[in-house]
Amino acid sequence: xxxxxxxxxxxxMVEAGENKAxxxxxxxxxxxxxxxxxxxxATTLAYTAVSQTSVGLAGALIxxxxxxxxxxxxxxxxxxxxxxxxxxxxKRRVTWMSMMRNYCWVxxxxxxxxxxxAGLYGLTLTKMGTDLSNPLIQTLIQTSETKTLGYQHLGxxxxxxxxxxxxLCNWMVTLGAVMAMTSTxxxxxxxxxWLPITIFFAQxxxxxxxxxxxxxxxxxxxxxxxxxxxxxxxxxPVLVGNLIGGAIFTxxxxxxxxxxxxxxxxxxxxxxxxGGRSGLTGTDSAQKVGTRx
Length: 293
What we know:
Layout: H1 6-21, H2 25-53, H3 56-62, H4 64-72, H5 78-90, H6 96-125, H7 135-146, H8 149-152, H9 156-179, H10 186-202, H11 208-220, H12 227-259, H13 264-278, H14 282-292
Helix pairs in contact: 1-5, 1-12, 1-14, 2-3, 2-4, 2-6, 2-11, 3-10, 4-10, 5-6, 5-9, 5-12, 6-11, 7-11, 9-10, 9-12, 11-12
């Protein structure tokens, strides 16, 4: 059987968080760039599916393809790291500084990747700026304005709303990353990841990396949104909400579910698993974590 038990999944999360925090900054930047661009590809694919079928769920069913590619290739998605690295910090395997270093460099990579794809996709949609008739142009413009000005019009309540939607989003997104660790087969990983990602996208929750593409893409195409609108009314509160959702509801939640209040027998069993895995060489451990994360 290719099913991985929860105790082993929890340890894989800790190991993944440790390896991600210790990665060099060039790798973080490049992997973040590629992941941002791939997620942007998946977003436009989802919008295309909705445009062609007029069925909103069609986009949600196909969007997880981008997430699956990112995870299977071992790229960096900061929203997934929001659950993994805090667990490694909790187990004293990494420092606060190394955690924040990972977040900053990966986010920088995401921004570059998303903006790069947004520029090329905008040229594609407009046929090098000569044709504005493609319906996806209006989709991106409206989405960009809704994700910023829509919250601005609500004032303080808008900030609260966007944070809540971001929490709900990354609760599911990080579960997607964790579910990839519940199987040792590729098809098992793909199916397990697909479910939570579909759940988040279908309900219109707020994902920081998706928004790093959608909002500036809409701005490039003429959305009435400023850089301040983008960051103050969406990007910053969404990053905060995504961090809360990943670190507390997935990372700490799963840790509490499988370790707090357990018997000494269960604790020693988990320690045995941890001890057995710590005997792996650095290369073997990194390869195993890379396969599962």
